[in-house]
């Protein structure tokens, strides 16, 4: 075990004389002060935010339905000395994360202000637009390593398309983000205009876990504990993969790249085996599928690695990576959240040099065209 | 006689409330189902005409797949080579909103299966169908059947009204444990909530696939609410859940528990070890990888040869031909799952001489 745990990956790289820099596909910036974001909102919505706040399909106005395991789900050491929430201070993020881990690019995933779950769709649109502007002004402009995503909540499809157009003209965003927990499964036809535009623009579709769509977090009802809710993220991702494949999204949009973010990847093999296993019995219900479900998964989908699975035996992680395919995996840290994966220690099994180059850098470089 | 081979999951079909169940209903509900035409409670999870619901060669000329005893005997015993089988009746009684109606329908199903199936073939045993809508009535139904050892487990749906670990169900688990009845959680939905957090799917295919995650949520609920701590003898059998999701599910559960266990201090062991002790799975479908090495890996990752139970899922179309055994299964597993594991899991299972 120690040969894996203690292996200082960066030192090893330097020894190999070809430095492998890390592309981190899941970095969470936070709003430092409301004024930062309000400057990108019309007065009407600034007022709305102060007066009415977020109207969500959840019971409380001041916290999440399931109290998390740490304040703001953050690492205890990630609170910036200058004040403000974890992830809100660029200098501290550089010092704690980007520089020491030699991050070449970090892809921003904003979760603030319940971006995709606002019941008031117009307010939700104003929040998304403001955050799209804020990502450039406060992050990408100040540190070119940090890349922004276009937040485009799918349930207001008309707005989503308009916002994609607006941001695409600016030209500095690397993906289009939609929400895995919203009104309906992402494969449904009503969302296809977004995929058509994403494909034309050559921008990957990013799906980061989260959202309050009003449906119970599990298929059997509402759990009692955060420990259950946390794991249900993997279920959400399995259901979305199934929806997108079975509705024929990759069949219909063959050049669309779809990235699943913060779902981990342990659930992928069994989900695809199960899809294939029952394909024959249900084939007459989905005649639009021209190939076996697993073939679409292997060509059109990518998955970020965190939270990485930690089987007792390293060889089991090795089997998992081989089943999913090193080509499909994009390293992500989830900085600054508590379940952060450190690129030096996350994989508790040795990777080949080729695998490391793909997972930590090459795959993301190709998907996001860096 | 052939070797003992216990099929832990077959499905006799209820024709209807105004036909099959009518003689077994109370006078009140007899009158109600006739005067109000209450019928057609086949679960949305298994529409009778859907190919998956009944294999082509297991469909009677008239009626639903699984509705004809002689045909079931020919299929499950003569053709598939089992020596015994456990009947799990999946009908809409568990999805009824009126808990009194649900209780009477469940009672009728249990009386019907005892009179018209178990009494006609000693190779058959059955799960007790219970109205989880009203846990006190579910307990009553278990007590009513407890003396009949032909009933070997308690049957509940994977997607019912609330997660099964919740405290209001504990009296049901207490009654089950008291009578050495494992709780059989079977695929199927009462359609109370969407089958996953993402909302209502378009296809039945999609719905069926999502059930695997519903089972996972049930295990987490039972573990984290502390059911296995409270009832240390309780066993849970996942039926028609798929199996290959277990390893990654257990890894993720262990990791999440290590991070957040402060929330559930009464759970003192890793979820995976609790699962290996308390949870069993029927092996149809297995949903495994296509190759022998992959299958062996999955079995090794699950890490217990006691968890697997032989099943055909008759008359569902899970496989073609005469062999319900999932392909490439290691021989040691194949032998244990037919006899030793079922007898250990269902202590009330008394084999015919």
Strand composition percent of chain B: 5-15%
What is the number of strand segments of chain B?
A: 8
Query: Would you give the CATH topology of chain A?
Result: TIM Barrel
Class by helix and strand content of chain A? alpha/beta
Mean pLDDT of chain B: 96
Strand content of chain A: 5-15%
Terminal-residue CA separation of chain B: 10 Å
Order of helices and strands of chain B: EHHEHEHEHEHHEHHEHEHH
Write a brief caption for the model.
The complex is a heterodimer of chains A (370) and B (353). With 370 residues, chain A is α/β, with parallel strands linked by helices.
What does it look like?
The complex is a heterodimer of chains A (370) and B (353). Chain A contains 15 helices and eight strands. Chain A is α/β, with parallel strands linked by helices. Chain A has one domain (23-367): TIM Barrel (Alpha-Beta Barrel). In chain A, strands 1-2-3-4-5-6-7-8 form an eight-stranded parallel β-sheet. The two termini of chain A are 35 Å apart. In chain B, helix 4 links the parallel strand 3 and strand 4. Helix content of chain B is 38%, strand content 12%. The mean pLDDT of chain B is 96. Chain B starts with 5 loop residues before the first strand and ends in an 8-residue tail after the last helix. In chain B, helix 3 runs parallel beside helix 4. Chain B is α/β, with parallel strands linked by helices and 353 residues long. Classes of the chains: A alpha/beta (370), B alpha/beta (353).
